[in-house]
Amino acid sequence: MRKQKYEGIDINVYEETLDNGFKIYICKMPFKKIYARISVSVGNAVNEFIFEGKKYKVSPHSAHFLEHILFDKKVSQIFCKNAAYFNASTGINTTNYYFLGSNNFYENLNVLLRIVNEPYFTDELVSREKGVIEQELKNKTEKPSSIVYQNLTRNLFYKSYYKDFKNYNKNMVEDLYNLTKEEIELYYNAFYKPNNMSLIIVGDIDLEKTVDFVRKYYQNNNIVKGVIAKTKHETEPETVFKEKDYVKTEISNELIQIAYKIKKIDDDLPLHYTMLDFYFDYKLGNLSNLNDLTEKDDNYITPYTYYDLNVMEDYFIAHSYVIVKQENKSIEILDNEIKDIAISKSELELEKKSFMSNLIKKLDNPQKLGNFIAYQLDLYKKPIYNIYMIYKNIEYDDFIKYISNLDFNNKAVIVYKKEI
């Protein structure tokens, strides 16, 4: 077992990779509860792949549907008995299963391992879950945040799977109900391999005993390293698919969403993601000049702003949505603010201190800390143990040079108008 340390924040992580490729990350901390999370490296963005020499295109609902099938009611009953909070989620790149509890840790851990390694597929179970997922998807289409995200992916990307997996339309239900047990089994066999999974545990546990427990589980069940399906790769253009769009929805105020598709310059992802995160937080966060503009003339943008920064293959995706009164003027103000690189040394130092403070705040409970590690695994494919020092050591000249070399001209704008 290898001991690693998050520099500057005094957090130790113990790493172990089993013979079958299953990766374990344990953070031993004196919390009253223990958080455990298994992440499988496949999510909603994957519906085309090559497996055992054959090409497949499956439903964009496959990853989410499989999550529901594996996390069934019998599993839930065991966690409830042990007074543990439990859940599962499917993201763009990963599917996650986790629990948080104080009692019967090893029984709960055994159940978590069984969820992802011992599937139980029947036609009856598949049929039952279709109605559950249909209602879940319907609920999402009625949420403004989901409407925002589905339109974001549709207008930014040419690639088919970025459109399919969030494009809830009239064919959604038909597509869902065409899913078969065989298709779900295929998806499971293509991606649910121990060498395509990782386990994160945060809490006051015995390190050696826990690793030995997981190792024996796999040995006793003869679960070995497997061949993982290869996902389809297409070259994504730097331009956006659609520059401007209008959506009618049930909202009380007019919203605009502006999203930037920014080509990554090179492979130093942790540093450059951090720099861009600093930049958009400065432009659209609490220190934003938009608040000053609003105070001078509230006809353009409300004081509330929001931004999110993601990585999708070769691109950073930064988007924000705000309540507005004058559509064209608001878009102009937002775009000009993003393209104005002016930021002082003192303002950058405030951003650095804010990010370092927020990072420390993530470490005050097991679930936050576990999710922080999981987020790094999803984004960077490994924990970035010097992330605090990256925040601290960014130099002003390097920051300005990097941001100045980025192209902010590829953007998509969506205007959400009240449905009359």
Please give a structural write-up.
With 420 residues, the chain is α+β, with helices and mostly antiparallel strands. Helix content is 44%, strand content 22%. The protein contains 16 helices and 15 strands. It has helices spanning 62-70, 73-81, 105-117, 123-141, 144-156, 160-164, 172-177, 181-191, 207-220, 269-284, 290-296, 327-339, 345-361, 366-380, 387-393, 396-404; strands spanning 2-6, 11-17, 23-28, 34-40, 48-51, 54-57, 85-90, 95-101, 197-203, 230-231, 244-249, 255-263, 307-312, 315-323, 411-418. Strands 1-2-3-9-4-8-7 form a seven-stranded mixed sheet, sandwiched between helices. It has a five-stranded mixed sheet with strand order 11-15-12-14-13, with helices on both faces. Strands 6-5-10 form a three-stranded antiparallel sheet, with no helix packed on it. Helix 3 (105-117) runs parallel beside helix 9. It is globular and about 65 Å long. Mean pLDDT is 86; it is low at 164-170.
